[in-house]
Amino acid sequence: MSVNAPRRVFARSTAVLVLALGMATSTTGLLFGADAQALPIAQGSFSFSGDEGDYISGGQSYAYSTASQDRLNISADNADNAVHLSADGANGDWWTLDLAAPSGKVLAPGTYTGATRSPFNAPTEPGLDLSGNGRGCNTLTGEFTISDVVFGPQGYVQKLDATFEQHCEGGTTAARGEVHIDNLAPPAQLGLGLAVALDGTASTLNGNATLHGTVSCNKPVQVDVAGDVTQVKKQKLIRGSFTTSVSCTPDAPAAWTATAVPTGDTPFQRGDVEVDGRATATDPDYAQPVTASQTVAVHLKRA
C-alpha cells in the first residue's frame, strides 16, 4: 500500500472558541459557562422578605447591595436560559437565587408562572430557587417576572431586573424579593490567530524538524503553540510533534519557533511536510480556552 505525500499548495486555518471545556457547576447543579465563572457585579442590589412562617426567610427581611460592600456575583448558562446569583453579605450571610426559563428557551422579559425548584423543574416549567444561610426548600412553587435582562458572551449578564415569589413545600406562606443588576458592557472575547511559516529546516545531525511562525491576539495572553508534523519519504511515514509557549500582546504578532522530534528511527528530511498547528490561550475575562489552528504544507531545507 502506498502513502501519498502532502500536496505543497495545501493550506487551511480555523479559529474556534472551545465551549465544551472549562464548564463550572453552580451550587444548585446548573451548568454555567465560564463565566461560568461568575463575574463580580459592578452595581446591583438583592433583597427579599417573607411571611411569618416562611421557612427560607424566617419571616425576616434581608437586603444586600454593592453600595453596602456586600459581594454580589452573577452568571448565565451557555444558552442564556438561566441565571445564577450569589450574595455574600458583609455580615456573613450567604444566599443564592436561580431563575430559569423552560428548557430550550432564552430567559427574556415576561412573567414565568408555575415555577418549580431549579434545576429539577420539568422541561416545560420555569425554574426558581432561593436558598442560603443553611436553608433550602425540598420542593417549591412560585413565579417570577423579568422586567429587563441583557446577556453578553460566555455567561456574562450585563443587566437584570426581576422580582420573584417562592412557596416552600407547597405552603401558602412565601418569600418575595427582587434583584437589580447593572454591569458594565461585556469585555470583548479573546481573538487568537496562528500562522505557520511555509519554510523550515531538517537537521542532518539529529533528524529533527525546526518550524516557526507567529501568533496574534487582541488581549495580552500566554499562548501555547503545539502541532504535529508528517512527512512521507520513499513510502515511509515520518511523524513528530512539537510544543512551545510565547507571550502575545495586541501590538504586533509574536514570533515562535519549535522543534519536532521524529517518533521513530527515520529522521525528517529535506522536502515537504504537513504541519497541523494549534495555538491555545485562556481568555482572561471569561476564563475560557480559545484555540486557533492552521494546517499547511511546509518545505524543509537541510540544516
Plain-language structure description:
- With 303 residues, the protein is an all-beta fold.
- The protein folds into two domains: 11-19 and 189-302, Sandwich (Immunoglobulin-like), CATH 2.60.40; 33-182.
- 0% of the residues lie in helices and 56% in strands.
- It is built from no helices and 22 strands.
- It has strands at residues 11-17, 24-25, 31-32, 39-40, 43-50, 61-65, 71-76, 82-88, 94-100, 110-117, 127-132, 140-151, 157-168, 175-182, 192-196, 199-202, 209-217, 221-233, 236-248, 254-262, 271-282, 289-302.
- It has an eleven-stranded mixed β-sheet, with no helix packed on it. The protein has a seven-stranded mixed β-barrel with strand order 16-17-20-19-18-21-22. It has a two-stranded antiparallel ribbon with strand order 2-3.
- A hairpin with a 6-residue loop joins strand 16 and strand 17 (209-217).
Q: How confident overall, as mean pLDDT? A: 89
**Residue share in helix:** under 10%
**What distance separates the N and C termini?**
31 Å
Strand content: over 45%
Radius of gyration: 27 Å
**Counted beta strands:** 22
Strand order of the largest sheet: 4-7-8-9-11-10-12-13-14-5-6
Largest sheet data: 11 strands, mixed
Name the overall outline. elongated
SS summary, helix count: 0
Unreliable stretches: 1-36
Class per helix and strand makeup: mainly beta
- Spell out the helices and strands N to C: EEEEEEEEEEEEEEEEEEEEEE
Give the tally of structural domains.
2
